[in-house]
């Protein structure tokens, strides 16, 4: 009896696997969205911190140049302003790249989400119908004297 | 440390693929062929494309975070 129904059991396991897959990949998609938002938030935080740092360094440099004799050494502050400016620019470039990449990924992710929400349930239904059909055929065979 | 979502997704594909291989070993009628053409092949291809795009995106996010740690 086990051998006779091995095909039906395998199809039932496939159906269960499809259902689990649908839910699991939804979870994967949600975590992917969380990763994107976490990175955006982190970059925004860094940009804010380095913008404040640049503003402070620039104010310090301006004060150095304004309040001292021509021989005063403001080179350390010049270097600090350049460094803060470069780092802030780098963060802005990464923000732009992340936004572009997230936008492109969103197209692929949207199509996959559509597959999970619409196509996959249809596949599961078709599989269930096939299983029911096989089970009905087996019952008929079993009833034949 | 939690697993990256793309790696979880790939593991799910592997598990589902094993279930399909087992079922396909028994299920070889016309309905099976239609199921493979209409559902299984598109599912496998789009899953692969999605997970490749996800892997590339997560690599980029990791690089972005690393490259802005001052």
Structure description:
The complex is a heterodimer of chains A (145) and B (70). With 145 residues, chain A is mostly helical. Chain A has two helices and no strands. The two termini of chain A are 17 Å apart. In chain A, 19% of the residues are buried. The model of chain A has no long low-confidence stretch (mean pLDDT 93). Chain B is mostly helical and 70 residues long. Chain B has one domain. In chain B, 86% of the residues lie in helices and 0% in strands. Chain B contains two helices and no strands. Chain B has helices spanning 5-26, 30-67. The two termini of chain B are 23 Å apart. Chains A and B meet through helix 1 and helix 2 of A and helix 1 and helix 2 of B.
Write a short abstract of this structure:
The complex is a heterodimer of chains A (145) and B (70). Chain A has 145 residues and is mainly α.
Secondary-structure blueprint of this entry?
The complex is a heterodimer of chains A (145) and B (70).
Chain A lengths: L5 H62 L7 H69 L2
Chain B lengths: L4 H22 L3 H38 L3
Helix pairs in contact in B: 1-2
């Amino acid at each position: 009896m086990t051998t006779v129904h091995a095909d039906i059991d395998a199809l039932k396991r496939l159906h269960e696997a499809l259902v689990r897959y649908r839910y699991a990949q939804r979870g994967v998609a949600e975590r992917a969205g969380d990763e994107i938002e976490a990175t955006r938030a982190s970059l925004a935080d860094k940009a804010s911190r380095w913008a404040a740092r640049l503003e402070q360094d620039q104010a310090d440099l301006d004060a150095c140049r304004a309040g001292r004799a021509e021989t005063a050494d403001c080179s350390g502050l010049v270097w600090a302003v350049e460094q803060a400016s470069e780092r802030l620019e780098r963060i802005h470039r990464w923000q732009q790249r992340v936004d572009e990449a997230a936008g492109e990924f969103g197209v692929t992710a949207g199509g996959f989400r559509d597959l999970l929400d619409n196509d996959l349930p249809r596949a599961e239904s078709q599989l269930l119908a096939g299983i029911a059909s096989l089970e009905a055929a087996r019952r008929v065979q079993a009833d034949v004297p | 440390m939690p697993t990256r979502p793309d790696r979880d997704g790939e593991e799910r594909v592997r598990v589902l693929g094993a279930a399909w291989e087992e079922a396909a070993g028994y299920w070889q009628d016309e309905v099976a062929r239609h199921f493979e053409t209409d559902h299984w092949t598109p599912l496998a291809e789009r899953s692969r494309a999605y997970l490749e795009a996800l892997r590339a995106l997560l690599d980029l996010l990791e690089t972005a975070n690393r490259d802005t740690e001052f």
